Amino acid sequence: MEKNLTEQRIEHLLSQLTLEEKISQMVHQAPEIPRLQIREHSWWNEALHGVARGGLATVFPQAIGLGATFDPDLVFRIADATSTEARAKARLFHKKGNFSRYTGLTFWTPNINIFRDPRWGRGQETYGEDPLLTAELGKAFVRGLQGNHPRYLKTAACAKHFAVHSGPEKLRHTFDAVVSPKDLEETYLPAFRALVQDAGVEAVMGAYNRVNGEPACGSKFLLQDTLRGSWRFKGHVVSDCWAIKDFHTNHKVTKSPEESAALAVKTGCDLNCGDTYPALLKAVELGLLTEADIDTSLRRLFTTRFRLGEFDDPNDQPYTSIGPEHICSQAHRDLALEAAEASMVLLKNNGILPLDRTTLSSMYLIGPLTYSVEALIGNYHGQSTRWSTFGEGLVEAAGPGVKVDFRHGALLNQAKGNPIEWALYESREFDVTLACVGLTNLLEGEEGDAIASDSYGDVPSMALPPSQHEFLLKLLDGPKPVIVVVAAGCPLDLSPYYEKAAALIYSWYPGEAGGQALGRLIFGQSDFSGKLPLTFPRSVDDLPAFEEYSMIGRTYRFATREPFFPFGFGLSYRPLAVTSFEIVPDHRAVLVVENPFDAPSKDLVQIYLEGAGLVRELVAFKRLELGPRKTAKLELEIPAERLTTVDSLGRRVPRTGKLTFFAGFSQPDGRSRILGAPDPLAFEIYIQ
Fold first, then answer.
1. Which fold would CATH assign to domain 342-558?
2. Contact between 214 and 266 (Cβ < 8 Å)
3. Is-catalytic flag, 270?
4. CATH code for 577-687?
């Protein structure tokens, strides 16, 4: 087959490189080669919810909050804004000769691992527990990052961590995720396949752990048979950072850096985040691999660099003129506010919300996260100059005519030294109290980031820290209503507070506009529309062991015990209503949705499928906003794959017998009804 022009240019470049120079380009910080006009290149850049770790940037809600929006269009616009800021920032950095980490255009995001266990500290980086939701939002994020130009990438996205990776953090360098073919096909691989085959993701990052005995970054099954074989992936593969070193130091599948590097390259890992690939020079000398193997990886890596326009005239490219005026532009700040509002989930409302500032006399703010920037940012974040904390947003929304006071009341995760409880007594003097509690990235996250965690960033108990728990119980025993706002990236146990709280709100880590969004929602300037992208179990005692990777007993699809808050649940002030629903030929869902209120309303239509002997699963969803007293007719496609099931050998087979579809605004389960969700409509079909 005749090579295209880019391929010819890459071959010419390879012909001029020495073996040492080739190997130097296969690590995360590739040095410049002046004689060939190859500039320094940093592959290591982050953009999980905005350009991260590179200075000024718009900070959007953490990924799990984006999962709660169930909105691919919104996620696409966020990724598009992120890639616009990335182009502008890279242009500024590179003009100064700064090509260091976090200044480039190859972004190691999105994280599309399945949040299979609520104890995982990095679950906040994902879109939740459902493969369909994860795939749809992941595809939207990739498309927003990479753009739609036929020749050039706006930025390069990366699907991580491939695959079967979700904690525990403490064991990630050593454990073997033993997983069945059924769970692989049904849960762990679909989102990766969708990003590769449907969204054209440029890169895939391997995981630290082993999968069925093979290190993920050197797995024949994952990288050769699946990714490049069945899925025909043409991009490059990068290791997680220092994961190749784990081959010989922790997994013990090799005996030396040379063996580890050779195994990784020969199975398809092209780029080493870490310091093991320099051993490739000796590995070639020892005959563990050939220079041709090196060239195969370099072709993939240089293809990405050419597609980013590194070797072409900037004047001939579509993205190189993006200027600094786009960084933290008003349009991007408005988008951050829109996303924060869409992400927050109303879990309980006894009628107290929305507050009316024209009649409200006084409001008391309390809790360690009230004025905390850490409650907004999550991990892998950028630096905003306009943080809106919960306290600031609530005071702004209340306006000057409402008396407001604030006390910390409790510390984040340590007992108070002063036993006097003035904060509790003063809460009795106000019409309503808003308690802002939860976690921050100090307590949950990646193994080395969550420095206040004694469990490597994981959240082993699902409980609020004792300091907050004890104080909140006392506060809720007071005579005045308490609205509880919880910031966290994982499910926390809210059962001790549910009955006595007047309202419960889950804010996740809502980004730079989190406070403004909270204030607007609480005072009714906007309506809640977020839904839970994962299950809130009643207790960790209801879960399998954290280290167990079987899906039995996990997530809403395979749970054996009733949760406290179900996947897909979330209340609103003005719930829409599904008035008719049917499944028509070609497996399209046709439904009519009505807004019965005299004000605009928005909600999330969810369609689930159940069948004899089959798990319940989400098969389609659509965010919808309707004007006052308006009605809309929707047609939602049910993807063909949703009408199959997976057997014990991992094969997709057609579903047969009676299948029941449900259309509503939550799962079709009893617990959602008890919590206030309206009844869904059902429609049955029979497949021979």
1. Rossmann fold (3.40.50)
2. no
3. no
4. 2.60.40.10
